[in-house]
Amino acid sequence: MAALRQFFAARDFVEVETSTVVTSPGNETHLHAFATELVAPAGSRERLYLRSSPEFACKKLLAAGERRIVEFARSFRNRERGALHHPEFTPRRVVPRT
After folding, report:
1. C-alpha 21, offset from chain centre
2. Which ranges in the chain belong to alpha helices (H)?
3. The pTM is what?
4. 14 has which bridge partners?
5. Which distant-in-sequence residues (6+ apart) come within 8 Å of 4 by Cβ?
6. Tens digits of residue pLDDT in 64-96
7. How do beta strands 68-72 and 14-15 pair?
8. 76 alpha carbon, distance to own chain's centre
9. Which of 11, 65, 75, 93 is the 20 to 30 Å CA partner of 41?
């Protein structure tokens, strides 16, 4: 990880860390998010989700004006299990925009 961070820093990328818990699981029908519940001190409850991908959050940063970002993010997908899939994984999102 140190070598990867050094590689991207040398190329003027900014490392970002976007939220893991999100209010919407996304609109992709083939992806299934893990649901959780936020319980406020007053007792109110809000349904939240573990992100299935950091892509949407990274795109929002690009739209806000960030130019070169990288994120080493944990993502979670329910209903994915097998020799090539695991419910928790780390995708590498590298987004250069010139």
Report:
1. 9
2. 2-10, 55-63
3. 0.76
4. 69
5. 72
6. 999 999 999 888 988 877 777 777 777 655 556
7. parallel
8. 9
9. 75
Q: Which two tokens stand for residue 38?
A: 């936020």
Q: What is the dihedral of CA 93, 54, 30, 21, to 10 degrees?
A: 160
Give the CA dihedral 17, 50, 86, 74, nearest 10 degrees. 10
Assess contact for 16 and 22: CB atoms under 8 A.
no
Place of tokens 């991908």: 53
Q: What pairs with residue 50 in β-bridges?
A: 21
Cα–Cα distance, 32 to 15 (Å, whole number): 27
Q: Rounded CA gap, 95 and 54, in Å?
A: 11
Half-sphere exposure of 36 (CA within 13 A, CB side): 10
Q: Which residue is listed with tokens 């007053």?
A: 42
